[in-house]
Amino acid sequence: MAPQETHPVNPSVKTGDFEIEALSSQCAARAAKLATARGVIETPVFMPVGTQGSVKTISNEELKSIGAQIILGNSYHLYLRPGTELIEKAGGLQKFIGWNAPMLTDSGGFQIFSLATLRRIESQGVQFQSHIDGSKHLFTPEKSMDIQRSIGADIIMCFDECTPYPCAHDYAARSVDLSVEWARRCKEYFYSKENKYDQLLFGIIQGSVYQDLRKDSALRTIEIDFPGYALGGLSVGEPKEEMYSVLRETVGLLPKNKPHYLMGVGMPEDIWEAVENGIDMFDCVLPTRNGRNGQAFTSLGKVNIRNAEYVSDFGPLDPECDCPACKGYTRAYLNHLFRAQELLVLRLLTLHNLNFMIKLLKVIRNSIKSDNFLQEKERFLKQYRSREKTL
RNA sequence: GGGGGUGUGGCAGAGCGGUCUAUUGCACCAGACUGUAAAUCUGGCGGGCUUAGCCCUUCGGUGGUUCAAAUCCAUCCGCCCCCA
Description:
Elements: E1 18-23, E2 30-36, E3 39-43, E4 45-48, H1 60-65, E5 71-74, H2 75-80, H3 84-90, H4 93-97, E6 103-106, H5 109-114, E7 119-121, E8 126-129, E9 136-139, H6 141-151, E10 155-157, H7 169-190, E11 200-205, H8 211-224, E12 229-231, H9 240-250, E13 260-262, H10 268-276, E14 281-284, H11 286-292, E15 295-298, E16 301-304, H12 324-328, H13 331-339, H14 344-369, H15 373-384
Parallel strand pairs: 4-14, 5-6, 6-10, 10-11, 11-12, 12-13, 13-14
Antiparallel strand pairs: 1-2, 2-3, 7-8, 8-9, 15-16
The structure holds one RNA strand.
């Protein structure tokens, strides 16, 4: 394969184009195509998370084989290791890891939440103490832009503060001010330099679970103007109803002709709910992390493959699934592998879960195009919840 | 034949007079995980009940000493090591 000399944008498609193919007549769901420098993404889409430049346990070929269109990387983690210098030397992250398709990087904003004990928010940015060696690193909006420019993903995110749950209203309000100001700085700084990889910079809406703050954040972020908008600070521990209620009130405020990305979500039921309200893009660690922890998402609900009930269950993990784990192996064997701590099971469950999510989004997309989204949602959820344990 | 050691809950292994249903690890049984500090974490793990508590039964067997024994004594049974 010949190395790419410049960014491989297809000259016939303008990066950032968001072509809506179908709108549901029943709700705000839509099916669309988003053009990025390294390819067009069909939405709604699920994006596997590969924090350190790798979707844990899964090869690029396998990702392709299950239909992954775009994967995530993370600024904080990749900046610490292997470092932006090396990634630049390699010709960008995609070349470095051998993924010749779209990528998106998170800004480090989530680490403000997840590494709360290892950082301090200051006026200019956030002082992180490396979880690897304890060294200190100041992340500013400008720094995050520099990192993400070096990494070179097709979609990059504004540096924001992902607030925790619960979060007091006045804190959340000040945090919205901060994230809006940072978004302004991100945009200004990012476009002050050459956009070498033709990257798309998305803005992020915050405001915790408060509708007034969400609205304020949305309007002010839209005012700055980005090619795409994300909802952040959700699925951080709040009750589902809180998240759903924010979705109902906030997604409608976003420009209809631009992609809507719900960060960090999620569970199958959350994804239906979000698409119904107009979300186009999702990322979540659940398929990969839960897979490694023995939990599979199946058409019949969640399955903890470690459990005793599967010791001699010689059926497939998910009878409706066509993934390698379901086609070639039994629940009993997967259970055995998990008990014996054989690494194969981590790969098989991860592959299955990712396949499940990607296929789910395909089903959702098709249901929008055939305009029976709500019926499909009901059908899916009924089956998905059919074996839920009732007490 | 002589000498020494040891037997604890599924396994390994602490405890060596009261605070012991008995540390810990493994195994086992469940649960959690949502822009990844995660192949991780949490809970349970003798029996029963009116289950944030109460009752009963456990530390090879038996019998003692003691107000009180997994812990001390005697004896029986089993296992291990060294010398001959």
